[in-house]
Write a structure and sequence with these properties.
Blueprint lengths: L2 H6 L11 E8 L2 E10 L7 H7 L4 H16 L24
Antiparallel strand pairs: 1-2
Length: 97
């Protein structure tokens, strides 16, 4: 699972947490952020789009997209518990080696 889905599931566990998102418009593979806050989580993460807007290198964005596709194809795992700690033994590389 991506961290995005894990974070949005925390609303059920934390009493004062409320999910909101910035409305978007997607056309021809381009995302426009509409500067409008709407209730609930977004239907997906736009982290790679934000990274592109921030000017990160195209090779890095391509690698991040490949990793995201791989993670999404594995399906969503159980959401994390707010009391759960995960130990990661290996960090995935953002760069092809």
């Amino acid at each position: 699972a991506t961290h995005y889905h894990e974070l949005t599931s925390l609303e059920a566990s934390l009493e004062h947490l409320v999910n909101v998102h910035v409305a978007t418009l997607e056309q021809n593979g381009q995302v426009t952020f509409l500067h409008k806050i709407e209730p609930g989580p977004a239907d997906k993460s736009y982290g790679i789009h934000v990274a592109k807007i921030a000017g990160l290198p195209a090779d890095l964005l391509k690698r991040a997209d490949a990793i995201l596709t791989q993670l999404e194809s594995q399906g969503q795992e159980n959401p994390i518990s707010i009391n759960q700690r995960n130990v990661v033994n290996e960090q995935m590389s953002l760069f092809d080696e």
